[in-house]
Structure formats: C-alpha cells, structure tokens
Specification:
Helix content is 34%, strand content 30%. It has helices at 4-7, 13-16, 20-45, 124-141, 144-148, 163-169, 183-200, 225-230, 257-268, 335-340, 345-352, 426-474; strands spanning 48-55, 62-71, 79-84, 91-92, 96-104, 172-178, 203-205, 211-220, 235-236, 238-243, 248-250, 284-294, 298-304, 310-311, 320-328, 359-361, 368-381, 384-397, 406-422. The strands form four sheets. Strands 1, 3, 4, 13, 17, 18 and 19 form a seven-stranded mixed beta sheet that branches. A five-stranded antiparallel beta sheet has the order 5-12-2-15-16, with no helix packed on it.
Length: 475
Amino acid sequence: MLPASLSAKWMPRDFVEATATGGAVTIVAYVLMLVLFLLELRSFLKTNIISTLSLSDAPGPHLRINLDIDMFNIECRNLRVVMLDDLDRSPIKLISKNYELTTLDSVGQRKSSHSTKVGADTDEDEDEIKHKRTMHELEATDGRKELDSDWASSHDGFKHQSWEHVLEYHDFTLINFFAGWCSHCRKFAPMWDEIATQIQGGNFQDVDGRQRAVKPIKVNCVDFGDLCNKQGIDAFPTIRLYRRDQNFTRYNGKRSLDGIVSWVRDTASQSSGWKQHHGELENGCNIKGFVIVPRVPGHIELMVGLGDQDLEPTATNVSHRVRHFSFSDPMNQMNRVLFQYGLQSAMQALLFSSPLDGQSFVSEAFHQAFDHHMMVVSSIHPSGITYQFSSRDRVTRLNTSTVPQARFFFDIEPFSILYQNEGKKWYDFATMMLSILGGLFVLLRLTTRASLSTASALQRSSGKGATSAARGLLT
C-alpha cells in the first residue's frame, strides 16, 4: 500500500482540502446518517402483526361457550342448558358443563338472605269477631259446601262464583293449581290426596299462637283459566298457601308429604314472606358458567320446562339479559390473557368484543321469543386461539301450545384468520445500514462535486469579466 502522503495526491482534492462547503456538507451528512440509523433501528426492533385468511385449522373437536345470562321470569328449578341440532332439533350431548344457577328477585337482582317483616297493629279480638261475622255471612249467601268444595271441574254441581269468598271464609287455604294435561300433576295427585287428608284433620298455630285450620283445595287451571291467569300461575303443579286477607306464599321445595306438611306448619306461624300480588313472588334465574360442545353448527337453548313442573305456554316469558356470551378454546384457558400482551389495544377490542354483552331482550307480547343468530370465526395467533362472532337477533312468534325458549344459534365459518408477528431479520438490518451509508456517501460526493464545479465556473466567469473591463479602460 502507498504511504498516506503519496496516496493523498491521488485522491480528489475535495477529500484532502478543508473548505467551508465541505464542513457544512459533512455536518449535514452526520445528521442524516444519525436520523436514518435511528429510523432503521426502530424498524428493526418493532414487531408488526399481519393477518392472513386460510382454511380453518383450529385444533381440537370441541368448543367452549361461556355464558352469564339473567332470565327474568323463569325459575331456576325450570331452567337447563341443552344443545340441539339445527336440522332435526335432536339433542346433541354436551361434552362437559360447569355452570351455577342463582335465583333473582322480581326486579332482576340476586336475592338477599334478609326478609322484610310485616307487622299488624289491629286489635286481635276485634279482628276475630269480624272474621266470625264474615264466615256466617258467607255461609248464608254461598253455602258451606260451596265454600269448602274443590275447584277441580266446572261441571261438578257447584257454582264456583267467588274465589275471594273461598279465601275469606278459611283462616288458611292450601291451593294445588293443576292442569289435566300436566304429567307432573298426574304423578302428584295421589300424594296430594294424602296431604289433604293429613292437613284437613289437624290444627296449625298462627303467628299469635292460636290454633287455625287449613283448608286444602284443588283448582283446575284448564276449566278455570281466567282465575289462574289472574293469579299468575305459569307452571303446574303450583302449591300456594293463602291467608284470609288473600296474601299468600308459595312452596318451592321438593314435593313430598312431610316436606309440604312441615312447610304449611312453619309458614302459618310466620308473619314474613306473605305477598299481596303474584308478581312479588315471581323469581328469575341467573345462569353463569360454561358448557363444552362438539365443534359443529347448532344452537344452545336455555330450555325451560325441564324441571319438576309443566309450564303454561301462554304465560311463559323468556325475556333475558345477556351479561356475557362468548366462545373460547377449551384446551387453552389462558390464551385470552396471553394474547392481550401480544396485540395492540385496537386489535384486542376487535378480537374479544362480544356484541351481545350488556343487552336486554324483552318480549313485549305473548307467544314471542328472541332468537340469536351468530357467525363464528376462529382467530389463530402465537398465544392460542380466540373467536370473533357477529350476531343478529329476531323475534319468533310461536303457537299457543309451544313453550317459548331462549335460543342462541351459531354457525362456524370454514376459514380462520391467522395472525403472525413479522419482524426484520438482523442480516436485513445490516444490509440496509450498509446500503444507507454507501448511498449517502455517493449522494454527498456528487453534491460536493457539483457544488465545487459550480463555484469554479462562477469564479472563472467573474475573472474573465474583470479582464475585459481592464482592457476597456486602457484603450
């Protein structure tokens, strides 16, 4: 290699001579190189997320459905979760289920363990005298047999003109509301005869410690449909205990001889729990948990009427509020949390949004129910699999013999959205840096040469002009 002193004379003059123009260009070059280096470094360190569409490659044959739904007018005893096939409505066996049912009060809130006591300020002796006078008056107008008779048929020879008179006549009246078509009622009929015999032959202590009689009566809600509708009877059999002031309470336990007789004895001696209107006894149910189903199109049905009662179709209301409804991978319960750390907030909102969450669906007329139709798309990413879905809702009108159901139809798309992290390789980064430096060197070299050539041309032009001027003065 040549010594530095010899090689310098072979290099361009603008490389070895210090000029103001060269210094300015050098500073600009340093600034540009620094900016480009920082931009390229940021691009190298940043990871972009790209998505592609492909045929579904979701692992596993199962799908998990998470739900948290309030049924405003359906009791927990009559609510179950089932999956049905869309084509022939045949049941599809659930792979697994894990959910709990919580009773809601008449305003849709979880029931409190505290009860409000209602006291009476009337004079007891005066009340007793008044009641005996009422009994004599009712016996004179209606007849004792009429007041003691079952309302089991409208063609049994009795008039059955005043329901209020029946309740006013007796201290307590135990009512069995039934329907002839109800299978649970037919099974319960022999037990009811035993209960009626045992209750009618005994005395029960009231809240004041006095012995009271309880009159058992059956009411046929097919023959006396208007009465049952007025009383808000929507499931059979329904057992209620009425006081003579027409306040009442309902038996919600398992139907057994000892259970019902003990309930009557305990309830008659209490001042709390009695209601004036059937709406105060209306309970709802919150269902919260998940079910694991086969990964095939179908629909989840919050089926009512699978408990120990048969529901009256015309009085069943399946209005509901969806607190949460979503799909997830049953094999990876942590994928949602992991996925959140790998995506931007906008992408999180897109992938984890549940369009049904927080919405209420209220039936405003009889024989109506909401159907939810969902299209589900799987999203596969490095942390696992999630599911997006869109939902459309419609009101279904039913015939009078069909019990309404809350149904959630879903169809699984045959393709998946594949999300991948895309970053710049280290050798791409190195190549780009060398390209930037080389390109910047050439650009600045050309800029410097052009500026020096322009300056020389201007200097020569100005020098020729000065010579011409001097010659003119001499002549």
